[in-house]
Protein backbone atom coordinates (compact mmCIF):
# COMPACT_ATOMS: atom_id res chain seq x y z
CA UNK A 1 0.00 0.00 0.00
CA UNK A 2 1.43 3.40 -1.02
CA UNK A 3 1.15 6.06 1.66
CA UNK A 4 -0.42 9.35 0.56
CA UNK A 5 1.55 12.56 0.75
CA UNK A 6 -0.76 14.02 3.38
CA UNK A 7 -0.30 10.91 5.51
CA UNK A 8 3.49 11.21 5.28
CA UNK A 9 3.38 14.83 6.39
CA UNK A 10 0.98 14.11 9.23
CA UNK A 11 2.93 11.09 10.42
CA UNK A 12 6.11 13.11 10.77
CA UNK A 13 4.54 16.30 12.14
CA UNK A 14 5.98 18.28 9.24
CA UNK A 15 6.20 22.06 9.64
CA UNK A 16 7.06 24.42 6.78
CA UNK A 17 8.05 27.99 7.54
CA UNK A 18 8.31 30.59 4.78
CA UNK A 19 8.22 30.28 1.02
CA UNK A 20 11.70 31.19 -0.21
CA UNK A 21 13.08 29.41 -3.26
CA UNK A 22 15.82 27.53 -1.39
CA UNK A 23 14.90 24.94 1.23
CA UNK A 24 16.64 24.39 4.56
CA UNK A 25 15.74 21.08 6.22
CA UNK A 26 16.34 20.72 9.98
CA UNK A 27 16.12 17.24 11.52
CA UNK A 28 16.30 16.80 15.32
CA UNK A 29 18.42 14.13 16.96
CA UNK A 30 17.64 11.64 19.72
CA UNK A 31 15.64 12.93 22.66
CA UNK A 32 14.92 16.33 21.12
CA UNK A 33 12.06 17.80 19.14
CA UNK A 34 11.60 20.47 16.51
CA UNK A 35 11.77 23.27 19.07
CA UNK A 36 15.46 22.43 19.54
CA UNK A 37 16.03 24.29 16.26
CA UNK A 38 14.17 27.46 17.29
CA UNK A 39 17.29 29.66 17.38
CA UNK A 40 18.38 28.44 13.95
CA UNK A 41 14.87 28.93 12.56
CA UNK A 42 14.77 32.50 13.82
CA UNK A 43 18.18 33.26 12.30
CA UNK A 44 17.42 31.87 8.84
CA UNK A 45 13.66 32.16 8.35
CA UNK A 46 14.04 35.18 6.06
CA UNK A 47 16.53 33.40 3.78
CA UNK A 48 15.03 29.93 3.32
CA UNK A 49 11.88 27.91 3.22
CA UNK A 50 12.48 25.93 6.41
CA UNK A 51 11.25 22.36 6.77
CA UNK A 52 11.11 20.66 10.16
CA UNK A 53 9.84 17.19 10.97
CA UNK A 54 10.12 14.36 13.47
CA UNK A 55 11.71 10.98 12.93
CA UNK A 56 9.59 8.19 14.40
CA UNK A 57 10.35 7.65 18.07
CA UNK A 58 13.29 10.06 18.12
CA UNK A 59 11.43 12.64 20.21
CA UNK A 60 8.21 12.77 22.23
CA UNK A 61 6.17 14.12 19.31
CA UNK A 62 6.61 11.14 17.01
CA UNK A 63 6.02 8.04 19.08
CA UNK A 64 2.62 6.98 17.77
CA UNK A 65 4.21 5.65 14.58
CA UNK A 66 7.21 3.94 16.11
CA UNK A 67 7.66 0.24 15.39
CA UNK A 68 10.41 -1.63 17.24
CA UNK A 69 11.04 -4.04 14.36
CA UNK A 70 10.87 -1.58 11.48
CA UNK A 71 13.12 0.94 13.16
CA UNK A 72 15.78 -1.53 14.17
CA UNK A 73 18.16 0.06 11.65
CA UNK A 74 18.90 3.57 10.43
CA UNK A 75 17.84 2.70 6.88
CA UNK A 76 14.17 2.80 7.89
CA UNK A 77 14.63 6.39 9.07
CA UNK A 78 16.43 7.24 5.83
CA UNK A 79 13.43 5.99 3.83
CA UNK A 80 11.17 8.25 5.92
CA UNK A 81 13.37 11.27 5.19
CA UNK A 82 13.17 10.54 1.46
CA UNK A 83 9.38 10.18 1.69
CA UNK A 84 9.00 13.55 3.44
CA UNK A 85 11.27 15.44 1.05
CA UNK A 86 9.71 13.85 -2.01
CA UNK A 87 6.24 14.75 -0.75
CA UNK A 88 7.34 18.36 -0.32
CA UNK A 89 9.05 18.28 -3.74
CA UNK A 90 12.34 19.45 -2.28
CA UNK A 91 15.02 19.94 -4.90
CA UNK A 92 18.65 19.98 -3.73
CA UNK A 93 17.74 21.10 -0.24
CA UNK A 94 20.27 22.08 2.39
CA UNK A 95 19.87 19.49 5.13
CA UNK A 96 21.09 19.88 8.71
CA UNK A 97 20.86 16.72 10.79
CA UNK A 98 21.75 16.63 14.47
CA UNK A 99 23.43 13.56 15.95
CA UNK A 100 21.91 10.36 14.54
CA UNK A 101 19.82 12.45 12.14
CA UNK A 102 23.05 13.50 10.44
CA UNK A 103 23.82 9.92 9.50
CA UNK A 104 20.18 9.24 8.62
CA UNK A 105 20.31 12.18 6.20
CA UNK A 106 23.53 10.83 4.71
CA UNK A 107 21.88 7.45 4.10
CA UNK A 108 18.84 9.20 2.63
CA UNK A 109 21.12 11.08 0.24
CA UNK A 110 22.43 7.74 -1.04
CA UNK A 111 18.88 6.64 -1.82
CA UNK A 112 17.87 9.94 -3.44
CA UNK A 113 20.81 12.29 -4.06
CA UNK A 114 18.69 14.71 -6.12
CA UNK A 115 16.88 15.79 -2.96
CA UNK A 116 20.05 17.13 -1.33
CA UNK A 117 22.29 20.04 -2.29
CA UNK A 118 24.39 19.81 0.87
CA UNK A 119 24.54 17.75 4.05
CA UNK A 120 25.49 19.41 7.33
CA UNK A 121 26.07 16.93 10.13
CA UNK A 122 26.06 18.40 13.63
CA UNK A 123 27.58 16.02 16.19
CA UNK A 124 27.21 12.98 13.93
CA UNK A 125 29.00 9.64 14.10
CA UNK A 126 29.15 6.67 11.76
CA UNK A 127 29.78 4.37 14.74
CA UNK A 128 29.64 5.22 18.43
CA UNK A 129 31.63 2.20 19.58
CA UNK A 130 35.37 1.63 19.82
CA UNK A 131 36.05 -1.12 17.28
CA UNK A 132 39.65 -2.19 16.69
CA UNK A 133 41.64 0.95 15.86
CA UNK A 134 38.47 2.99 15.37
CA UNK A 135 37.54 5.30 18.26
CA UNK A 136 33.84 6.00 18.42
CA UNK A 137 33.91 6.90 22.10
CA UNK A 138 32.04 4.03 23.80
CA UNK A 139 33.26 0.61 24.82
CA UNK A 140 30.69 -2.19 24.52
CA UNK A 141 30.62 -2.40 28.32
CA UNK A 142 29.81 1.33 28.49
CA UNK A 143 26.78 0.82 26.24
CA UNK A 144 25.60 -2.18 28.23
CA UNK A 145 25.93 -0.19 31.45
CA UNK A 146 24.05 2.76 29.97
CA UNK A 147 21.14 0.60 28.87
CA UNK A 148 21.09 -1.35 32.15
CA UNK A 149 20.99 1.88 34.16
CA UNK A 150 18.16 3.27 32.03
CA UNK A 151 16.20 0.03 32.30
CA UNK A 152 16.42 -0.04 36.10
CA UNK A 153 15.31 3.56 36.70
CA UNK A 154 14.50 5.55 33.58
CA UNK A 155 13.65 8.81 35.34
CA UNK A 156 16.86 8.85 37.36
CA UNK A 157 18.83 7.88 34.28
CA UNK A 158 17.45 10.82 32.26
CA UNK A 159 18.84 13.25 34.82
CA UNK A 160 22.35 11.77 34.63
CA UNK A 161 22.24 11.30 30.87
CA UNK A 162 21.04 14.86 30.32
CA UNK A 163 23.95 16.32 32.26
CA UNK A 164 26.44 14.08 30.48
CA UNK A 165 25.15 14.85 26.98
CA UNK A 166 24.82 18.61 27.47
CA UNK A 167 28.01 18.80 29.57
CA UNK A 168 26.41 21.19 32.03
CA UNK A 169 24.97 20.97 35.58
CA UNK A 170 21.43 19.82 36.31
CA UNK A 171 20.03 23.32 36.77
CA UNK A 172 21.20 24.52 33.33
CA UNK A 173 18.21 25.41 31.09
CA UNK A 174 19.40 23.22 28.20
CA UNK A 175 19.82 20.24 30.54
CA UNK A 176 16.36 20.82 31.97
CA UNK A 177 14.83 21.02 28.50
CA UNK A 178 16.61 17.91 27.27
CA UNK A 179 15.68 15.91 30.37
CA UNK A 180 12.06 17.05 30.00
CA UNK A 181 11.82 15.81 26.42
CA UNK A 182 13.49 12.52 27.35
CA UNK A 183 10.94 12.03 30.13
CA UNK A 184 8.10 12.75 27.71
CA UNK A 185 9.17 9.73 25.65
CA UNK A 186 7.94 6.23 26.35
CA UNK A 187 10.88 4.49 28.06
CA UNK A 188 10.64 1.32 25.96
CA UNK A 189 10.78 3.36 22.74
CA UNK A 190 13.58 5.59 23.99
CA UNK A 191 15.70 2.60 25.03
CA UNK A 192 14.99 0.67 21.83
CA UNK A 193 16.07 3.62 19.73
CA UNK A 194 19.07 4.40 21.91
CA UNK A 195 20.26 0.82 21.53
CA UNK A 196 19.82 1.00 17.75
CA UNK A 197 21.82 4.23 17.63
CA UNK A 198 24.67 3.12 19.88
CA UNK A 199 25.02 -0.20 18.07
CA UNK A 200 24.76 1.29 14.59
CA UNK A 201 27.77 1.10 12.29
CA UNK A 202 27.52 2.66 8.84
CA UNK A 203 31.23 3.18 8.26
CA UNK A 204 31.12 0.93 5.21
CA UNK A 205 28.39 3.11 3.66
CA UNK A 206 30.25 6.42 3.71
CA UNK A 207 31.81 5.83 0.31
CA UNK A 208 28.31 5.82 -1.22
CA UNK A 209 27.64 9.43 -0.17
CA UNK A 210 28.11 11.78 -3.14
CA UNK A 211 26.41 14.92 -1.81
CA UNK A 212 28.80 17.61 -0.47
CA UNK A 213 29.08 17.32 3.31
CA UNK A 214 30.05 19.55 6.21
CA UNK A 215 30.80 18.09 9.65
CA UNK A 216 30.30 20.41 12.62
CA UNK A 217 31.68 19.04 15.86
CA UNK A 218 31.85 20.60 19.33
CA UNK A 219 35.37 20.65 20.72
CA UNK A 220 34.15 18.67 23.72
CA UNK A 221 31.34 16.17 23.23
CA UNK A 222 30.74 13.26 25.61
CA UNK A 223 28.55 11.49 23.06
CA UNK A 224 30.77 11.74 19.98
CA UNK A 225 34.55 11.46 20.06
CA UNK A 226 36.48 13.99 18.00
CA UNK A 227 38.14 11.04 16.27
CA UNK A 228 34.68 9.99 15.02
CA UNK A 229 34.19 13.39 13.39
CA UNK A 230 37.65 13.21 11.85
CA UNK A 231 36.84 9.72 10.54
CA UNK A 232 33.75 11.11 8.78
CA UNK A 233 35.83 13.91 7.29
CA UNK A 234 38.47 11.50 6.02
CA UNK A 235 35.93 9.21 4.34
CA UNK A 236 33.37 11.63 2.94
CA UNK A 237 35.01 12.81 -0.25
CA UNK A 238 35.47 16.57 -0.39
CA UNK A 239 33.89 17.13 3.02
CA UNK A 240 34.66 20.01 5.37
CA UNK A 241 35.22 19.61 9.11
CA UNK A 242 34.81 22.51 11.51
CA UNK A 243 35.45 22.16 15.23
CA UNK A 244 33.09 24.50 17.06
CA UNK A 245 34.16 26.48 20.09
CA UNK A 246 31.45 24.86 22.18
CA UNK A 247 31.02 21.95 24.55
CA UNK A 248 28.29 19.35 24.78
CA UNK A 249 26.29 17.36 22.26
CA UNK A 250 23.50 19.94 21.83
CA UNK A 251 25.35 23.11 20.81
CA UNK A 252 22.41 24.36 18.71
CA UNK A 253 20.56 24.64 22.02
CA UNK A 254 23.36 25.46 24.48
CA UNK A 255 25.53 27.65 22.21
CA UNK A 256 23.17 28.70 19.40
CA UNK A 257 25.16 31.75 18.29
CA UNK A 258 28.19 29.56 17.61
CA UNK A 259 26.16 27.10 15.54
CA UNK A 260 24.31 29.85 13.67
CA UNK A 261 27.60 31.51 12.74
CA UNK A 262 28.97 28.18 11.47
CA UNK A 263 25.83 27.51 9.45
CA UNK A 264 26.10 30.96 7.95
CA UNK A 265 29.59 30.08 6.73
CA UNK A 266 28.60 26.74 5.23
CA UNK A 267 25.05 27.02 3.93
CA UNK A 268 25.87 29.21 0.92
From TrEMBL:
Keywords: Hydrolase. Gene3D superfamilies: alpha/beta hydrolase. InterPro entries: AB_hydrolase_1 (IPR000073), AB_hydrolase_fold (IPR029058). SUPFAM superfamilies: alpha/beta-Hydrolases. The keyword Lyase does not apply. Residues 24-262 form the AB hydrolase-1 domain. Pfam families: Abhydrolase_6. GO terms for molecular function: hydrolase activity. Belongs to the AB hydrolase superfamily. This is Alpha/beta hydrolase. It comes from Azospirillum endophyticum.
